[in-house]
Design goal:
434 Repressor (Amino-terminal Domain); mainly alpha; about 0% strand; flat; about 70% helix
C-alpha cells in the first residue's frame, strides 16, 4: 500500500474524504498539499507524517507501509489502551493472555522461517532439510533417550 492509500483508509474510518477541507483543518495542513500526495505518489515530509500519525493514533511505520500493525508503541497511552482492550477478553487472567501471546509469536516466527525456506532453490532446500535431519539424530532429540532422562 502507498502512504496515500493508508491515509485514505484512515480518513474513511473517520468519515471524511482525504483531501477535504475538514481533513485539512483537523490535521492543520494545506488542502492542496494533501491532494498532491495522491498525484505524486510520494509521502509527505517526515514531520507531516508524524502529525498525521498522531492525529489518527497510528504509528508512522504503519502510515509508510512498513508494518500492518497500527499501534504506535512509542505512545504509552495508546499501548495501555490497546492492552486494556486485549486483556479485557481474558477477564484479568494473565496466564491466558500470555499463552495467546506466545502462541501468536510462535506462529509468526514459524511463518517467517517458512517464508525464508520457500525463497530457497531446490538445492539449498535439500541442504536445509539434511541439516535438520542431522540435528534430529542428536541424542537430545531422540525420543527413547528423552524418556529415560525424564523417568
Amino acid at each position: 500500500m502507498t502512504f496515500f492509500e493508508r491515509y485514505e483508509q484512515l480518513c474513511a474510518e473517520r468519515g471524511y474524504k482525504p483531501s477535504s477541507a475538514q481533513a485539512a483543518q483537523d490535521l492543520g495542513l494545506n488542502k492542496g498539499t494533501m491532494a498532491a500526495w495522491r498525484k505524486s505518489g510520494k509521502p509527505p515530509t517526515s514531520d507531516v507524517v508524524v502529525i498525521i500519525a498522531n492525529a489518527f493514533g497510528v504509528s508512522t511505520d504503519y502510515l509508510l507501509d512498513r508494518t500492518d500493525d497500527k499501534l504506535d508503541y512509542a505512545n504509552p497511552e495508546l499501548v495501555a489502551k490497546a492492552a486494556e482492550e486485549s486483556f479485557g477478553d481474558f477477564n484479568g487472567d494473565m496466564k491466558k493472555a500470555v499463552a495467546l501471546y506466545r502462541a501468536t509469536a510462535e506462529k509468526d516466527a514459524t511463518r517467517g522461517i517458512i517464508a525464508q525456506y520457500d525463497s530457497l532453490d531446490d538445492i539449498d532446500r535439500a541442504k536445509v532439510e539434511a541439516f535438520i535431519q542431522g540435528l534430529l539424530c542428536n541424542e537430545k532429540y531422540n525420543e527413547k533417550s528423552n524418556r529415560k532422562k525424564h523417568a
